[in-house]
Design brief:
single chain, six-stranded mixed sheet, two-stranded parallel ribbon
């Protein structure tokens, strides 16, 4: 099976692309809002019940039934394969609530290494870890934990970040496999209609609200037989072996892509300028009431385009936006447009409307530069070059004066 790209393993859109499914979601929207509000109220009661009842099979059964009312249905496969003596569960990572789902089936603890701490960490079902700083200290702490007898097993997610669960698995980190020589693989599938399971940069609270909004979310948990490390097997080899087992069980591809690769891809995608921003948006950029509806990059381009437009009102807005998309700088765009206009006006014998309007406006100041800018087209190359430089200087001075007058700046500030 061909290895997927990182793009295939992440859902950047919460809403579906298919028109028919999007129409169904539109019809479902009022129902989803009502369900979300009702489930928020029920979810508070589920949290209080889980806090009040002592840890037992009865508590997990009650909370599991109440979670079904919240739209989180849990199914498990091969529960007899679960080894009660194994102290480490290894599971793939799909949603922000994977550890809560596994905890509904069997007691387990998932350490929290980053993010929320204190009450929020405890309320989300994480175990807060407070060893000395550094990965080695954390590993030693968890290794001692796994060697204890009367403790719940650890549940670790070696992908260290979520995927959509449809294409492949991120490369497993090797350090969880150095904690113990025997682990219990857990394969997790998650299905939800209408909307995506998760999107990058979305907080756990937003994911919880979307879970309440969706009609239901089904979690399929498959328990695989315990796997032991061979004598000559390193931690990374052990991790690769378990990753292949889980990928085979889930029907996915075991990739070499890591959490860092995902973060880098998201960063590049977030900062990339949309290809349609210069061809679709220019007409709407000039409308002030439309700017707040644009994306972050488009709003920035619109703001810079308006600044250039204030200085060069005769330049069409689509040309300004096109140049800004290349330069990403107001001053550089003004320079480019001025130079292009100056060269065009010289080569076309000074008959362009932009050059004529500039010269007529600036000539009222009766400076020596305007006279040289209005000279006829010279025959010799040296004279033409001198005329071009003089015309550029005139346009620069006009643009600088107009900008200073527009923003009420002092002459020194304009320079």
């Amino acid at each position: 099976m061909e290895a997927p790209n990182i793009e295939d393993m992440i859902d950047f859109r919460r809403l579906p692309k298919d028109t028919l499914v999007l129409l169904l979601l539109l019809l479902y929207f009022p129902v989803g809002i009502c369900l979300m509000l009702l489930r928020i109220f029920i979810g508070i009661h589920v949290f209080l019940v889980s806090c009040a009842l002592p840890e037992s099979f009865l508590k997990r059964f009650i909370v599991r039934v109440m979670c079904s009312v919240l739209g989180m249905h849990v199914r498990q496969k091969n529960p007899r394969s679960r080894d009660k003596n194994t102290k480490l569960y290894i599971c793939n990572h799909v949603t922000e609530f994977d550890h809560n789902i596994i905890n509904l089936l069997t007691p387990c603890c998932t350490p929290q290494f980053e993010g929320s701490t204190g009450f929020v960490c405890w309320a989300r079902g994480f175990m807060e870890v407070h060893p000395a700083p550094g990965q080695e200290a954390i590993g030693e702490f968890l290794q001692r934990y796994c060697s204890m007898e009367a403790v719940s097993p650890l549940l670790l997610l070696p992908e260290e970040d979520t995927t959509n669960g449809h294409a492949g698995l991120l490369k497993f980190s090797s350090w969880p496999f150095s904690l113990t020589d025997s682990i219990q693989p857990v394969a997790l599938r998650v299905a939800r209609p209408l909307i995506a399971l998760s999107t990058p940069q979305s907080s756990w609270l937003a994911e919880l609200l979307w879970t309440f909004f969706a009609p239901f979310t089904v979690y399929h948990v498959s328990w695989l037989p315990p796997v032991s490390r061979q004598d000559d097997e390193s931690s990374q080899e052990f991790a690769n072996k378990v990753q292949e087992l889980l990928a085979c069980e889930l029907g996915l591809v075991s990739t070499k892509l890591t959490r860092a690769d995902k973060a880098e891809h998201i960063k590049r995608k977030r900062h990339a300028v949309p290809p349609t921003s210069t061809s679709v948006r220019p007409a709407s950029i000039g409308l002030g009431f439309m700017v707040p509806t644009l994306g972050t990059d488009e709003r920035r381009i619109a703001k810079m385009a308006q600044q250039v437009k204030d200085v060069l009102p005769h330049i069409p807005l689509n040309i300004i936006v096109k140049d800004l998309a290349k330069t990403n700088c107001v001053d550089l765009t003004i320079t480019n447009l001025l130079e292009n206009r100056a060269e065009a006006s010289v080569e076309e014998t000074g008959t362009s409307s932009f050059g004529a309007s500039m010269n007529s406006t600036y000539s009222s100041s009766s400076t020596p530069t305007t006279k040289s800018a209005g000279k006829p087209f010279a025959k010799s190359p040296a004279d033409r070059h001198l005329s071009l430089q003089e015309r550029k200087e005139a346009l620069y001075n006009f643009a600088r004066r107009r900008y200073i007058e527009k923003h009420g700046l002092d002459q020194e500030d304009g320079h």
